[in-house]
């Protein structure tokens, strides 16, 4: 059994940007224009742009350099590890593995965030959660707030490789995650359940409890997979 999906906007944009780089519009060492300029050029949101850039970073085309910004480091074919050259068609088993990897990485990111966050960074996570609360109250999907919450925690891990890889993974799973989230948020009971799971994550990070933050995140993602009919950690005693 396979799921056929339209290619996501970040994926389309990353391919467009790669083709422009390979056509000679940029050479190795060139700095990309500011985010606002690029978003306006391509007619996309900064979130979509960041996901596309994260994908090209993961593929070894772009790199963030302190004091310079995003720089082109390779104009040839992508050399990085890739789950699939085309993610339009994936099997159910592959979706399970993607979510299992997400659970592993996000739970560790939350554990790191619990011990590494600054007060200002904790405010950002709290504000993202407040946005999720407001979305549930108004019977909205809260997709952007949910993504902001996840990305804020990843950023607070202060591990640049983990941050970039999670951004790449979020870009690959964006459309599927959005579809599942919309289905979940149409049920008031489920929406409140999801909100409480995120509240547990927020509270354990704020309490600087590394192990509880890890467990709360893992519990949420196991539950999220189950609600979506997926089976992660299948056969595991965890």
Word description of this protein:
The chain is mainly alpha-helical and 238 residues long. The chain has nine helices and four strands, in the order βαααβββαααααα. It has helices spanning 9-25, 35-42, 46-58, 92-116, 119-137, 143-156, 160-185, 188-206, 210-227; strands at residues 2-4, 62-65, 69-72, 89-91. Strands 1-4 form a two-stranded antiparallel ribbon. Strand 2 (62-65) and strand 3 (69-72) form a beta hairpin. Helix 4 packs across helix 7 and helix 6 runs antiparallel to helix 7. The longest helix is centred in the last third of the chain and has 26 residues, at 160-185. The radius of gyration is 18 Å and the shape is globular.
Please provide a brief summary of the model.
The chain has helices at residues 9-25, 35-42, 46-58, 92-116, 119-137, 143-156, 160-185, 188-206, 210-227; strands spanning 2-4, 62-65, 69-72, 89-91. It is mainly alpha-helical and 238 residues long. It is globular.
Shape: globular
* Structural class label: mainly alpha
Low-confidence stretches: 1-5, 79-89
Query: What is the number of helices?
Result: 9
**Strand percentage, roughly?**
5-15%
Rg of Cα set: 18 Å
Please outline the helices and strands:
Layout: E1 2-4, H1 9-25, H2 35-42, H3 46-58, E2 62-65, E3 69-72, E4 89-91, H4 92-116, H5 119-137, H6 143-156, H7 160-185, H8 188-206, H9 210-227
Antiparallel strand pairs: 1-4, 2-3
